[in-house]
């Protein structure tokens, strides 16, 4: 990493952003956490502004000054090459580091779950607020999806599951849909009696939009009780995750090779028995060489490991940085 031997590791998701200052020997010198990273909503410059106080904080904590040698950023909403290019330019323009690399944040999950030595080959599926999948094959092959939402063929993730749960619950209450316990459980979670009250509270923003993120765990609880609608949604989510992994393995010619399929994000790391059981069953049927693994380490670890890769760090550095995040 040049003269100072330090790098900034950044993982910026829709709901939170983590920044760490890492030395070439794997020491983590400082960390900071901030809010979500949403360039499609606020624009590139304002999104990058979210990083600024976090970068200042970790540099001050470590007694260092910009520029450091490198900044490895893994960012939500860096879904297209043009977006990666804009974000790279926006971050490079701040002068925080001599060199900057930007990738979609799903690659951070992939790097965190892969071994630190040998050819990096594997698939990562993240299912948190949203859903995405990336893969690395032999000889540097890469597979990924636009992951922009419904217009790019996506289905699932916590935000989508919340919307589906609300949709089914509303229709169950007014008679347009099949009965489901969701029509009682969802409003009760917010201290309300009916779905009509909940719909009004959400529409008029008496309940802030971010509280919809509380609904996926409730959906899993209702599914556990045997509710058919809730179970159908969870099963559909498992099918979508398995499909993403299968298609990615196929595109990279990895279906006939033992390959790690790394699973991350809040929906997957909760290890719901119905979701996880159906997912592993589908992978066993359609990609029997796949080796599913739930990765609970924070994605910023992947950014830190990437920084060490680029520095040509020695073997001991990887164990040290992994040890920091447990």
Q: Which geometry do the CA atoms define?
A: globular
Distance between the termini: 25 Å
Tell me the major beta sheet: 5 strands, mixed
Percent of residues in helices comes to 40-55%
Unreliable stretches covering 5 or more consecutive residues: none
Give me the count of strands: 10
Number of helical segments with 4 or more residues: 14
Instruction: State mean pLDDT (0 to 100 scale).
Output: 95
Helix and strand element order: EEEHHHEHEHEEEHHHHHEHHEHH
Strand order of the largest sheet: 3-2-1-4-5
What structural class results from the helix and strand content? alpha/beta
Structure report:
This protein is an alpha/beta fold. 46% of the residues lie in helices and 19% in strands. The protein is built from 14 helices and ten strands. The strands form two sheets. It has a five-stranded mixed sheet, sandwiched between helices. It has a five-stranded mixed sheet with strand order 8-7-6-9-10, with helices on both faces. Helix 7 packs antiparallel against helix 9, helix 9 crosses helix 10 and helix 13 runs antiparallel to helix 14. It is globular, with a radius of gyration of 21 Å. The mean pLDDT is 95.
Sum up the structure in keywords.
globular, alpha/beta, single chain, 19% strand, 326 residues, five-stranded mixed sheet
Describe this structure in a few short sentences:
The chain has 326 residues and is an alpha/beta fold.
């Amino acid at each position: 990493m040049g003269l100072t031997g330090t790098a900034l590791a950044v993982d910026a998701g829709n709901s939170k952003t983590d920044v760490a200052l890492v030395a070439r020997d794997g020491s983590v010198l400082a960390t900071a956490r901030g809010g979500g990273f949403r360039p499609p909503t606020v624009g590139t410059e304002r999104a990058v502004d979210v990083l600024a106080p976090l970068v200042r904080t970790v540099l001050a904590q470590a007694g260092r000054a910009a520029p450091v040698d490198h900044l490895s950023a893994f960012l939500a909403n860096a879904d297209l090459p043009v977006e990666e290019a804009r974000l790279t330019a926006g971050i490079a323009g701040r002068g925080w580091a001599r060199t900057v690399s930007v990738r979609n944040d799903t690659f951070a999950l992939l790097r965190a779950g892969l071994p630190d030595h040998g050819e990096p080959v594997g698939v990562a599926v993240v299912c948190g607020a949203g859903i995405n999948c990336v893969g690395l094959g032999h000889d540097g092959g890469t597979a990924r999806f636009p992951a922009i939402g419904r217009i790019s063929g996506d289905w699932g993730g916590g935000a989508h599951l919340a919307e589906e749960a609300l949709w089914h619950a509303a229709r169950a209450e007014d008679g347009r849909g099949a009965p489901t316990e969701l029509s009682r459980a969802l409003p009760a979670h917010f201290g309300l009696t009916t779905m009509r009250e909940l719909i009004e509270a959400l529409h008029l923003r008496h309940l802030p939009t971010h509280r919809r993120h509380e609904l996926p765990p409730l959906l899993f609880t209702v599914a556990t009780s045997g509710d058919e609608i809730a179970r159908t949604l969870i099963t559909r989510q498992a099918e979508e995750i398995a499909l993403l992994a299968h298609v990615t393995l196929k595109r990279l010619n990895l279906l006939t090779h033992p390959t790690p399929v790394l699973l991350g994000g809040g929906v997957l790391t909760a290890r719901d028995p119905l979701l996880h059981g159906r997912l592993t069953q589908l992978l066993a049927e359609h990609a029997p060489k796949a080796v599913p693994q739930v990765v609970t380490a924070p994605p910023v670890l992947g950014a830190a490991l990437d920084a060490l890769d680029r520095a040509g760090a020695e073997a001991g550095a990887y164990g040290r940085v992994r040890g920091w995040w447990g």
